[in-house]
Amino acid sequence: MDLDAVEELREDLDAFCAEVFASIPRRDSRQWGGCYLRGLMLDGRRKSIQPMAERLPDGNMQALQQFVASSPWEHTPVRRRIATKVSQAINPDAWVIDDTSFPKAGNHSAGAVRQWCGALGKKSLCQVGVSLHAVTDAASVPLDWRLFLPKEWADPADARRAKTGIPDGVGHREKWRLALDMIDQARSWGLQDQVVVADAGYGQNHAFREGLAERGLDYVVAVREDVNAHPGQAVPHLPERRKGRGCPPQPRYRTPARSLKELALEQGRGALRRCTWRQGSRGSMRGRFLVMAVRPAGAAAHKAALEKAGGRSGWDGVLPPETLIAEWPPHHEAPTDYWLSSLPADTVLRHLVRLAKIRWRIEHDYRELKHGLGLDHYEGRTWRGWHHHVTLVTAAQAFLTLRRLDPKTQTSV
Question: Which Pfam families match (predicted)?
């Protein structure tokens, strides 16, 4: 937006900032928060602090730098207010977990190491942020963020930790655990539980799916074709124990587990069902899908089953079945995409597929957050600065999203 358009929003933006920044004790700090949001929304190639300050009539580089990088305001209460406000407004259909990368020129920014960088499509020096989003087909907004701290940054004696202000007690934690932490945080804020959706980076992990199940949350998560499972109707048997020999036998399946691809191919094209799951900008979104019950296999699934058994005798070793959804386009020899769901077996196919596909909104989120609002333009190195910046960018997107949903206004980035 140009300066005139941003100034036209000034009154509404000030009211929004007064609400979401209410936890920040200093009035002048709250004012710089509003100034920063205007800088993020204003047209400009770079949304780092210096160029934003130069574009704004009331911009002050030193004040903005201090507000983002070193001011001690807590980002969590601000995120809570944003999450509550947008969740009430958009009434989400799902919570979507994802992560995004922040390319860096040096390895002195908190959490920066050489790792897979999705923004560049290769391994490169970057930070990675894990995010939780409230999503519908029409709107989506991040609810919370976590900065992934690789093992290289976990040593408390590492001098870089002190320089970047990483809090004591914060160490390496896998991304899927950070995702569960954010879900726990959202629930502690009083947000209504939603079906959890995630890509294969999370869905592939049995412990992540088990963590959701333990919390009573349903999910529809992408997985790879090589995940091993048994057909849903398969039941393990308990071998006879030979007297005086070894430990009690454990339940086992009569046939080996097979990959999801193999199970789908065994069902064949005759089992496919056509489904239209939503209307897109180019017309109806349609596809052909296979749906079948499967039981997870592998060491992680077996361990989870034993833990569920709790040592009780007579246990048959059966984990609850999950629903496999496989998309099998015409002219393909095998399905191209796979998901596992914990939703009831009688869930309507259109609902299953719509949830499986709803991750497209997150790609829209990241484009808007990065290209329109400068999510990855922050040049600071500190832990606090990163969390402040992503919180402020989230606030800017939330404000614009709420305006787009208001029939009285039509505002775009």
Answer: DDE_5
List the structure tokens of 207.
């412990």
Cα gap 331→340, rounded to integer Å: 24
Residue 249, classed as helix, strand or coil, is coil
Q: What pTM was computed for the model?
A: 0.91
Cα separation, 296 vs 136, in Å, equals 29
Cα Rg, the chain, nearest whole Å: 24
Burial of 315 (0-12, 13-18, 19+ CB in 10 A): middle
Tokens of 157: 């004696």
Cβ(154)–Cβ(171) below 8 Å: yes
Tens of pLDDT along 180-204? Answer: 999 999 999 999 999 999 999 999 9
Task: Report, in this order, helix, strand and coil percent for the chain, each rounded to 5.
Answer: 40, 20, 40
What's the rounded Cα separation, in Å, for the pair 23 and 26?
A: 9
Answer yes or no: is pLDDT of 217 > 60: yes
Residue 245 pLDDT > 90: no
Tokens, residue 308? 């569920």
Q: Which percentage of the chain shows pLDDT scores above 90?
A: 79
Closest CA to 189 of 341, 260, 87, 306: 87
Q: How far from the centroid of its chain's Cα atoms is residue 8's Cα?
A: 33
Assigned token pair, 316 = 């048959």
Closest CA to 305 of 251, 260, 343: 251
Residue 181, judged by CB atoms within 10 A of its CB (0-12, 13-18, 19+), counts as: middle
- Residue 310, pLDDT above cutoff 80: no
Give yes or no for a contact between 308 and 319, defined as CB atoms under 8 angstroms apart.
Answer: yes
pLDDT, one tens digit per residue, over 30-76 is 999 999 999 999 999 899 999 999 999 999 999 999 999 999 999 99
Q: Are 358 and 280 in contact (CB under 8 A)?
A: no
Instruction: Tell me the longest C-alpha to C-alpha distance in the chain.
Output: 87
Q: In 10 A of CB 114, how many CB atoms?
A: 12
Tell me the pLDDT band of 21, cut-offs 50, 70 and 90.
very high
Measure the N-to-C terminal CA separation of the chain; round to a whole number of Å. 6
**Structural domain spans, the chain:** 86-199+362-379, 209-238+251-358
